[in-house]
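Human: Respectfully, please carefully check these tokens:
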Amino acid sequence: MDWDKLRIFHAVAEAGSFTRAGETLNLSQSAISRQISALEADLGVTLFRRHARGLVLTEQGELLHGTAKDVFQKLASTQAMLTDSNERPRGVLKVTTTVALGSIWLTPRVKAFMDLYPDIRLTLLLTDEEIDISMREADVAIRLSPPTQPDLVQRRLMTMHNHVYASPEYLAGRPMPQTLQDLVNHNLVIYGEDLRPPTAHVNWLMDSLRKEGITPANVLKVNNIYGIYRAVQSGIGVAALPDYTVRQISNLVRVLPELAGPSYDTYFVYPAELRASKRVTVFRDFLLAQINESAF
């Protein structure tokens, strides 16, 4: 099987069109089309079905794509390990974590890491959906629960604590709540139910109110912790938030300070094949130093 044709096939399968693959490979659409046709002729099978909206892999194409994807992922891992054999850490490092943790806590610290390691090209993938790092969709992850896959290495980073917060603007002219019952006359911002939440007990405040038979005056649902944080900042109402969201630059006020939500650990997670990676090691050590400075 011709390696150049396989490389072009992989690019087309990933892009879904000859045009987008051509932009990635710096080849013309006609050149790519000829290579794919030649590969199909060599194999004696049809790899793509053409239609107006693009290309769809056939059953044989799916089989070849799965194998090609594995090959290119292993090559990328090998390249990373060869790069890490240099004295100074260098290369691409893709990091994934939740939108809130990434936006509020991690992103402000990125400059310091980039200053320390200018040869590492950092990419942040912020999403509340779990990216599969075992398939190298990212190199490392900061997760709010331990991984269940056996081929992943984990290191506990820090413990997250949760309390109730509101903005000074919202509290102005309103009596400060002294008990859970007092929240009946307040607006509440809670995690919505449309998506899987980042932690199991994200709506612990609402659950506590329901157990007491308390129904707040108004409830806003937001299916993202960062969105809840911004809503509280804007003065919409009261919400349960992780302490890291308000610890550094926020002026939010803790409400019912004796009331605490469930705590949970966060983990630094990466594939076992990157155990010796200098990029991963220096990033992990950087995070641990930042956590110590933050006094979590």
In short: The chain has a mean pLDDT of 88. The chain has three domains: 3-82, 92-156+269-294, 162-262. DSSP finds ten helices and twelve strands in the chain. The longest strand covers residues 152-160.
